[in-house]
Amino acid sequence: MKRVITFGTFDVLHVGHIRILQRAKALGDHLIVGISTDALNYSKKQKKTVYSQFDRLEIVKSISGVDEVFFEHSLEQKGDYIKKYGADILVMGDDWMGRFDEFKSLCEVIYLPRTEGISTTEILAEIRAA
Ligand code: C2G
């Protein structure tokens, strides 16, 4: 059984998020998703999420194909999470290309192309402008 792990904030869920989760799942049998905590997200982007980490976790957990979810507290712990969850493959969008290559000693690392033309930032900008 192949275990796939991926990570993300998944705020204001959209089709780009769904597609990367579906494509990640298609690479194995069991999909584990690390949800960035509010604190980790703030440290990465210097802005707050719309939905709390608890809501984001609950939403992602309810998506068909997602088998397990947990909170990602820091980027530095990625190797520990890969080991803890016994992941065979780490999947990330290609906006992270090369950033997690150090984990190739622990598991396969695959960067998938992002879905073009959609992002949480653009959705929020459109809502604000409406
Ligand atoms: N994504 C995508 N297409 C989009 C938008 C996002 O394929 N149009 C992918 C991203 O590449 C990422 C995942 O969806 O793999 C989650 O995206 P974000 O919620 O923006 O996650 P991010 O804040 O990049 O957090 O440890 C890494 C981080 O936790 C990733």
From TrEMBL:
Pfam families: CTP_transf_like (PF01467)
Gene3D superfamilies in the cross-refs: HUPs
Iron recorded as keyword: no
InterPro entries per record: Archaeal_FAD_synthase, Cyt_trans-like, Rossmann-like_a/b/a_fold
Coiled coil: none
UniProt superkingdom: Bacteria
Keywords: Nucleotidyltransferase, Transferase
The protein's name: Adenylyltransferase/cytidyltransferase family protein
Keyword Isomerase found: no
Boundaries of every Cytidyltransferase-like domain copy: 5-123
Gene Ontology MF annotations: nucleotidyltransferase activity
